[in-house]
What we know:
By secondary structure, the chain is mainly beta. Helix content is 3%, strand content 39%. The chain contains one helix and ten strands.
Amino acid sequence: PGIRLVKTHNKQPANGENCSSLTVGEVVTYTFVVHNTGSVTLGNVTVADKTFNGSGAISGLSVPVASSGSSATALLPGGTLTYTATYTVEQGDLNRGNISNQAEATGVFNNVSYKDLSGTALDNDSPTAIAICQSPGIRLVKTHNKQPANGENCSSLTVGEVVTYTFVVHNTGSVTLGNVTVADKTFNG
């Protein structure tokens, strides 16, 4: 008896990058393919996620699609069962910079369970991981309440008049920023 589980995802890096550009709310589709690599039929085939570091929850598995003649109750030698599941990306995933998980397939022959941790190909048990591109960015916009009147190019101020400055910090990136501070660098007043 032999069983192998290959788990892949649909968010491969584009154009030679080493990370995938994901956004909050984007849906990742995982494909699980159980292979009977042995010479006997396996029964009661199941797949379960073992480890998952996503900030949210992965969906339940779809109904399996079996190769010709096979089913979840009778996976023929050389046969496959294909399942899918989805995951919706959350901000915590972007902040962490990755989503990683691994599942386990189980099949039974003569009342003995045979198991395999998922890999990214038939020849490994490497967790299925998505490296997420992180793009931190920050912008500061500073304004005041003394705009020129009637199309003039200067403001008319009197001694003792109060000018109110407003500072608005914008997170222009894809990750959460911490310890944000604002400090005046130059002031000639």
